[in-house]
Write a structure and sequence with these properties.
4 copies of one chain form a homotetramer.
Chain A: E1 4-5, E2 10-15, E3 21-27, H1 37-47, E4 64-65, E5 69-70, E6 73-74, E7 79-84, H2 91-94, H3 106-113, H4 130-146, E8 150-158, E9 161-162, H5 169-177, H6 186-201, E10 208-215, H7 229-237, E11 243-248, H8 259-262, E12 266-269, E13 272-275, E14 283-284, E15 287-288, E16 293-299, E17 309-313, E18 318-322, H9 333-356
Antiparallel strand pairs in A: 1-2, 2-3, 3-7, 4-7, 5-6, 8-9, 8-10, 10-16, 11-16, 12-13, 14-15, 17-18
C-alpha cells in the first residue's frame, strides 16, 4: 500500500516538496480523543530546521485540519491534515533536471515514473513530506500519554560525537520533548553542532544514530511472524528518508555476545515480571514483554552537499559533475528524531487497537 | 495480517513445533512456473541441523504439496505445502511449562494467549516454522533465477570470527548455494565451527551476522514511503526468529561517514547507469537503482542454553532457575541464512509482480 | 488478496477439486475458544450432497486440523484445516479439456492461467473448495453463539416454489440448524425437491434465493464507507460460486417504495432502541443498529447440465456442443446455505474483533 | 481499512458534510496519465443537485488538486483532491441533535462514536462525501477510455417508471455521459421526474434501480474466491450510501430460470470467444469473460422526508416524532449514477493494475 500504512489505525501520506501542499490522512483513531493543535505545532517545530546547521528554507508549517475533528476532539472518522507549501523556489530546480544527485531518489524516480515525476526539490521523496507524518503522529503521541506510554529519542551519535546513555527513561523523555537538539548531555550536543558546522563549512554533511525508548508498553503487544513488533515498526522506520539501519535492544552487538550474556533473565518484582537486562529491547518472539522497548536507527549523512561529485545527466545521457548549491541541511539527524517518535506512536496505536479494540484509548 | 505477508504474491504460515504439521500457503504466483521438488528439498536441507553444532532433533522435512501445482507447474492458484512433524518428543516439555526460557517467547506467548498457547517446544514461535517459509521461498528463488536475479547470503561473522568479503557476486552466490555452512572462506568457516563447538561444550551459544546480496534486480522496484524496498524487506526479515538488526548498504557505519564518502556517484557504463560505490545498498529513496541490493542481518545467540539462568515460573508465580537440557542449537546463524534468502525471494516476487504484473514471470 | 479475506480475523483458502486436498487457514481467532470437531463435521454434512437431488460424488470430508488447536481449544495462532480429496475420478475430465462448460469458469480460467490451470472438475473454482470455508466457518459460528449471536439461512425460493417467512428468528434458526434441506415449511420443501428432481430428470437444473438472518449483533458494528457492514459481507458472499445477487433488508424492493414506507422508525422498548420495521436489514449508514441483520442471496441454477448446449472448444479453436455427463448437482441452493452461514460468521468475527479487540470473544 | 479501498490502485476518503472540506487521496495511479480538470468538473456536475427534484443546497464543488499532478499529468504518487465546503448552514443541525432521522446513520454513528461524531448534516456519512469519490473516479474513467473501456449507467427504474433497455452499449454510454438525468428514453425520464416531484410535494421521497454496463473489459480480470470481480465491485458499490442491493447479469431473476436458460453459450465470432446471451454479466467464476460487464444497484428512497415519522431522541432517551425540514433530495437515484460509474472505474483500474502491472495504462 505504497503511501498508506497500518491496519486498524492507518496513515496515508501525500504531497510534493514544491506542490500545493503536503499532508496526511489518519484513519481509525478512536472517537473522543482530544486534539491539541498547539502540541501538533510543537512537534512540527521540532522537525523544522534549526539555526546554521539546517537548511535556510523556513516553512511556517501552518497546518490545517480539514476533517475528523469536531469540538476539539476526534470524531472517529478520517483526520486529514494539510500543510501548504509556501516557501517554494521552484525555478531553482527546473534547469538542473537530469543531473542525478548522488544518494537521492532523482534517478530512481526517473526510472520508476518515466520522466513524469515532480522533480522539484525531490518531489514526493522530499523529507518535507515527513511533516505530514509528524502532524499525524502528534495526535498518536498524545493518545499514548493518556495510557502512560511515553516515547523519546535522543541523538546517540552524530558527526563522531557520542551522547551519554539514558539514565531515567521517563524523566529523560520529558527533557528531550522540549529540546530542539535532542541530546541528554548538552555539552555533547554542543560538540556535535560544532562538528556539523565544520562539515557544512567544507560543503559536506554528517550522519548519526538515533536511540529511542518507549516506556509503558504493556506486555503482549505484537504478533508472531509477520506482524512481530520489530517487523511492523521497522517497516515504518525504514520509510523515513535517510534511515539505513534499524536494530532492537543489543542489535548488531548481539553477534559478539554469548547466549548467557544476551539472554535477559526474568524476575518477579512484586507481582510484575521484569527482566534483569534488556538486550532484547523489550520484545521476545515479536511480542512485547512489558519492559521498555529500545531501538536504534542509523541516519545517513544528508546526500545534498555543495562539494562537487561525479554523477550522470540521465536526460542528456552523459557523465557530469554536480555540487548541490541550493538550500539543504548539513545534517538531518536532529530533525529526524521527531519523525521517528511519530511513526513509532502511529505503529503503537495500530498494534494496541488490534489487541484491545478501537475503544480502548477512550476508556 | 499476523501470519500472512505480501500483496500480489503472499505467503501464509501455520503450525507449531510439536503439532501435526507446519506449512505455508503461497498465493499470487503466476501460472506455469515449473516447481522443482528436488530444489525445495535442497533448500530445506540447508535449513536443517548440521552435525555437532546443531540440535540432535532431525526431521526429514518430507514436505507435501497439497494444491496449486499441476503437471509439475504452478496453476496460478494457492500452493499449500505441508511438512509433517515426525520427531516430536512432547513429553519433554509439559512438565517445564511455566518456567520462562530467557530470550524465548514463552512468557510473552503466555501473556498474549492467556495460557492457551501450545507451549511444546516453543509452539508457533519455534524456528521450525521457518521450514514452511523455506519451502515456499524455494519456488520464489527459482522463479527469480529465470529472470537472472540471484540471491546469496554468507555468514559475515560468527562467534567472533569474520568471513572474507564477497569478491564476485554471481559466482559467490553459486558457490554458497551448495554449502551447508555458508562462508566464502572455508578456513574461516572451520574456525567459526570450532568456536561454536567450544560454546556448546560450555553449555552456551553464539550469534553472528549474515550478509546478503541480490544481483540482477532491475532499477525502479519498490515504492516511496511505506512500501520502500527497505521497509518491505525489513518487515519480512524481522519476522525471522532471532534477527535483532537489519541494515542496508553501509548501514550503521554511515553514522561515521561524511556525505561525500557515503554518496554513491552515478556513472554511465556504456548505456547503463551504475554507481561507483554501493553504500546505499542498491536503493535510493526506497527504490532500487539497478546495482546489487546489499543488506546485513544480526542474528542473536540461540536463547536455549544448558547453562543455568535466573528466570520466573509464571504459573507458580515465583522466581526460579533454568537450564535448557533438551535438544537445541548452540548457533542458528548458519541455518538462518536460507531463511533470509527465502523471505528475500518472496518479497522480491511480490514487488516485481506489483510493478510488472503477475504475468511477467511467465514471459 | 485473492484467496485471503479479513483483517483481524482472516481466512485463506487453497485446493482443487481433484488435487490432494482442499482446506483453509484461519488466522486471528482468539485463544481459548473451544473447537468442537463434531460440530465442524455436522456443518460439513450440511454442505454435502443429499439424495437424488445432488451429485452422486460422495466425500467423507474427513477433515484434519493441522495447527492452532491444543487440548481442544484455539491457541490464538493459525488454524489450518485440511480435507483430503478421496473420491476423485480424474480420468473423467482430461479428455474433455478445451470444451468450455457454459456458465463455468473453464474458459476464464484458461484465459487467466494460460492453460496451466488444473482443469479437473473445475479445479480451484470447484464448489468443493467451499468445504474449507465451511470447516473454518464452523469455528466462527460456535464463537458467535457464546456471544448470543445466531445465524440462520433458509431457502426462500427454489425452482419456483416459495418457503414461508421467518416467524421467530431464534427458534427458526435453531430448527434450520438441524435440517439438511433448510426450509421453514417442510411441505414447501417437498415441493421444491420434487421440482428439482423434475429438472434433473430433464437434464436440467434450477436456482433459488437464500434468506439469512443474524440475530444478536450488537449495534455499532461496521465502518463508514469501504468497510460498511454491507460492503464487507457482500464481498465475502459474492465469493461463493453461483451467487449472482445480494440484497439487504428490502433490497431491490426498495426501488418501488416511498421514503415513508422504507424508513424504519426508531422506538424505545424500555431502555433499548429498536425499529418498528426492518427494511434496512439492521444496518444504517453501513453500521449495525442492533436489529437483526437480514439479507438475501440469489443462487443461479447449476451450470452443469446434461442437456446439450452450444459452446466452444478453446483448444481446438472451434464451435462445438456439450452435455455434461459426469457427476453434478441439479441444484446447489440447499448446499450453499451453510456456506452463506459460514462466510457470514467469519465476517462477523472479523468486524467484532476490530471493534472490541481480539480478546472480547474469550471474555 | 475503513476509508481506504483498493490494493494496487487505492482511494482514501475523508471529510464531513459541514466541516472544512471533503476529499480523496488516490494512490497507485501510473505516472503520465493526463488529468483533465474540466472532465473532473463535468463529473462533479453530474453528481450535483438538479432543479426541483434535488436539494436546494448548491455547492460549486470547486475542487483543488493538492498533489500528484505535475504539468497536467499524474506523477505516479498520491493525488489528493480537496473540495471545500462552502454552503454549510451548521446552525440548522445543532438543535436537533439526538433526534435520529429514520433510515439515516444518526443513531448508529452515535452508538459507534459515543457522541463525538460530527452530527451536522450527517457528518462523515453524508452523501456529500461521494463528491470525493467522483473526483477521484473521474481520473480513472479517463484512464480506462484510453484502453477503450467505457462505463455507463442509466436509471433503469425510478418512482415506478421503467426506462427502456440498452440497445447499443457504446453509443448509449456516450449519450448518457452528457445527460444530467441519465435515462435512455427521455420521455420515460420526464415521467420519472414528474413522479419525483409529486413525492416531493407530499413530503416524501422515491427510490430506483441503476443499471450499469462496462464495455471493453478484457477477459481474465478478477481472481477466484475473495477477489472475484463481483466481490470487489460489490464491496465498493455497497459503500455508496443508499445502495441496498447489487446483482450481476440476470441477478435475482436467475432464481426462476433453468440452467439451460441461464447458461451463456460460448461461440467463436471469428477469432474471438463471445457468449450468445449474457445472463452471467460478463463474469464466470469471478473472472471476466470478455463480454460486457452488467450489473444493477437498488437505490433506496432518500431517508430525509419532511413527512412526520416516529423516532427516538437518543439524547433525551425518549420517543418523539420528526419531520426533516431542512434541505434534502426527494430522490438520489439520478445523482448516484455517476458515483456508481466512479467506483466502478476505480475498481477496474485496481484489478487491471494487478493483472497487467502499474505501467500498462501508460503503454
Amino acid at each position: 500500500m505504497k503511501n498508506t500504512f497500518g491496519n486498524n489505525v492507518s496513515v496515508t501520506l501525500f504531497g510534493e516538496s514544491h506542490g500545493e501542499a503536503i499532508g496526511a490522512v489518519v484513519d481509525g483513531l478512536p472517537a473522543g480523543i482530544s486534539v491539541d493543535e498547539d502540541f501538533i505545532a510543537h512537534q512540527l517545530d521540532l522537525r523544522r530546521p534549526v539555526g546554521k546547521i539546517s537548511t535556510p528554507r523556513q516553512e511556517k508549517d501552518a497546518f490545517k485540519i480539514l476533517s475528523g475533528v469536531f469540538n476539539g476532539r476526534t470524531t472517529g472518522t478520517p483526520v486529514c491534515i494539510v500543510i501548504p507549501n509556501e516557501n517554494t523556489k521552484s525555478k531553482d530546480y527546473s534547469s538542473s533536471y537530469g543531473k542525478a544527485r548522488p544518494g537521492h531518489a532523482d534517478y530512481t524516480a526517473f526510472i520508476k515514473y518515466k520522466g513524469y515525476e515532480d522533480y522539484r526539490g525531490g518531489g514526493h521523496f522530499s523529507g518535507r513530506v515527513t511533516a505530514g507524518l509528524v502532524a499525524a503522529g502528534a495526535i498518536a503521541v498524545d493518545m499514548l500519554k493518556n495510557k502512560n506510554i511515553y516515547i523519546g529519542t535522543h541523538i546517540k551519535k552524530c558527526a563522531g560525537v557520542n551522547d551519554v546513555d539514558f539514565s531515567d527513561y521517563v524523566s529523560d523523555i520529558e527533557k528531550l520533548s522540549r529540546k530542539a537538539f535532542a541530546v541528554l548531555d548538552d555539552e555533547k550536543g554542543a560538540r556535535m553542532i560544532s562538528q556539523i558546522e565544520k562539515a557544512a563549512s567544507e560543503g559536506n554533511s554528517v550522519g548519526g544514530v538515533l536511540e529511542t525508548v518507549v516506556s509503558g508498553v504493556p506486555a503482549g503487544v505484537g504478533e508472531p511472524w509477520f506482524d512481530s513488533f520489530e517487523s511492523v515498526l521497522s517497516h515504518a522506520l525504514f520509510s523515513i528518508p535517510g534511515i539505513k539501519g534499524v536494530e532492537f535492544g543489543a542489535g548488531f552487538d548481539c553477534a559478539d555476545m554469548l547466549g548467557s550474556e544476551m539472554n535477559d533473565s526474568f524476575v518477579f518484582e512484586k507481582e510484575t515480571v521484569k527482566t534483569l537486562s534488556n538486550n532484547n529491547g523489550g520484545i521476545n518472539g515479536g511480542i512485547t514483554n512489558g519492559m521498555p522497548v529500545l531501538f536504534k536507527c542509523a541516519v545517513k549523512p544528508t546526500p545534498s552537499i555543495s562539494k562537487e561529485q561525479a554523477t550522470v545527466d540521465f536526460i542528456k545521457g552523459e557523465n557530469t559533475v554536480l555540487g548541490v548549491k541550493d538550500r539543504h541541511d548539513p545534517c538531518i539527524v536532529h530533525r529526524a528524531r521527531v519523525v521517528v517518535d511519530s511513526v513509532t506512536a502511529l505503529v503503537l496505536c495500530d498494534l494496541l487497537s488490534q489487541k484491545f479494540g478501537a475503544d480502548w484509548f477512550g476508556e
